[in-house]
Design goal:
The protein is built from eleven helices and 21 strands. The strands form six sheets. Strands 3-2-1-4 form a four-stranded parallel sheet, sandwiched between helices. The protein has a four-stranded antiparallel sheet with strand order 5-8-6-7, with helices on both faces.
Length: 420
């Protein structure tokens, strides 16, 4: 039977932890429907339909893992759950708590906590002798007047808990460092950010800037063993002062030995953090001193970017994750032949989005699969370091990575965003 037609028992049920802010809901639900797997959608906001569909909808307090676990255990006494899947960093810790309580395969709770805390991650890498930049944890309530000698300039200032490059800034001297800290203070003081971060919102990481180019690695872990699903080249340099990501292209155009080095470093990083099971997404910088794992997230690639990945007989990344979570051996399922890529359309400046021009022309570019605009008209938008979203996504598929990159850049050049 082909992989694309595999069906699980009608008794199989997955609990998807879906924050209201996530882009991932539709992709995961569609994958579950394709597999004929029952889904319970868990969100932090109660649904008006929950009383009519107690089997399919549940409210969990993602900020309170203990309370969420009690609620999930109560649910599971009526509707058995076979897998718990967090779709992003916001839910990884809760997922570990819930899966442990339900006696399901899961990552250790400590691993999920480490994956959300860049300082704990640095410490884990350092203990295992991995390439790690010099770093120091700083309280935003007691910022030192000068940069500690062991770090030095240029340095990178980052909050320990935020993702999507939010709050990450490069400083080349003391004056820039002071400005970056002030800017970071403004970001983490936002009530929504402060609530999400809790005590972590008052902590920052100062670390040595790692020169070189950057790639992203998508992987899946089974019984502690890391398997690379894809390496994405990032052709646009990420050298600061901010670190907004744009284009991802796979397969990588790097030499095979360098790709092996990147995969080996990523595997070592996941082992250092104690990962046991599930998807991971890593950011890795490479220079003459080797591969430096910047971070490993306990989730798959973010936003709508997973659409750039297809496996086997038209299997999505979300379908692969659900199959794996339910215990299927997916080791033989490989990424499709050919090249693919995505651009996270950058926000050029802050303001209100008033108009989008050139969308039809952008979609007509050869090898462009789709252009999806996720920002809505009148929405107030911000680029990094304050912003945490994109204008949308451009997807391409072609025979070669070069064709993919050229198509994405051509498509993007035809778009114009009117921002007031």
């Amino acid at each position: 039977m082909s992989h694309g037609r595999r069906r699980f028992s009608s008794m199989s049920r997955v609990m998807l932890l879906l924050p209201t802010t996530t882009y991932r809901t539709k992709a995961f639900v569609d994958a579950a429907l394709k597999l004929k797997v029952d889904v319970v959608a868990a969100s932090e906001q109660p649904s008006t339909l929950a009383s009519r569909n107690p089997e399919g909808l549940i409210t969990l307090d993602f900020a309170n893992p203990e309370l969420a676990t009690l609620r999930a255990k109560e649910y599971a006494t009526h509707y058995p759950v076979d897998a718990v899947i967090p779709v992003d960093e916001e839910t990884a810790v809760v997922a570990a708590h819930v899966a442990k309580a339900l006696k399901l395969d899961h990552n250790p709770i400590e691993t999920a906590i480490t994956a959300k805390n860049k300082y704990l991650m640095r410490e884990a890498f350092d203990r295992q002798g991995l390439n790690v930049p010099s770093f120091v944890l700083v309280s935003l309530d007691r910022v030192p007047h000068t940069l500690p000698n062991r770090v030095g300039f240029p340095c990178v200032v980052k909050p320990v808990f935020l993702s999507t490059s939010r709050g990450v800034m490069r400083a080349n001297n003391q004056e820039e460092l002071k400005a970056a800290v002030k800017r970071l203070e403004g970001i983490v003081s936002d009530p929504n950010v402060a609530h999400r971060g809790g005590k972590l919102a008052r902590e920052a990481l100062f670390e040595e800037f790692v020169p070189g180019f950057e790639v992203a690695v998508e992987g899946l872990i089974t019984s502690g063993e890391f398997r690379s699903l894809a390496i994405f080249d990032k052709p646009d340099p990420l050298n600061g002062p901010f670190f907004e990501e744009t284009i991802y292209v796979t397969p990588s155009r790097l030499a095979p030995d360098l790709q092996r080095q990147i995969i080996e470093a990523t595997a070592q990083a996941t082992q250092a953090m104690g990962f046991r099971r599930g998807p991971v997404h890593a950011e890795v910088r490479v220079n003459e001193n080797g591969a430096w794992v910047i971070e490993v997230a306990a989730r798959a690639i973010g936003g709508l970017c997973s659409r750039a990945l297809k496996f086997g007989d038209d299997i999505s990344l979300e379908e692969l994750i659900i199959r794996h979570a339910l215990g299927e051996n997916v080791s033989s399922i490989q990424r499709e032949r050919g090249a693919a890529g995505v651009m996270m359309i950058p926000i050029p400046r802050s303001g209100a989005l008033r108009e989008i021009l050139g969308l039809v022309e952008a979609r007509r570019v050869p090898f462009i699969e789709d252009v999806v605009i996720t920002a809505h008209l009148t929405q107030k938008i911000q680029p990094p370091p304050e912003g945490a979203s994109y204008l949308g996504f451009i997807f391409s598929r072609a025979d070669t990575p070069d064709q993919v990159e050229r198509a994405i850049r051509d498509s993007h050049s035809r778009l114009e965003f009117v921002i007031e």
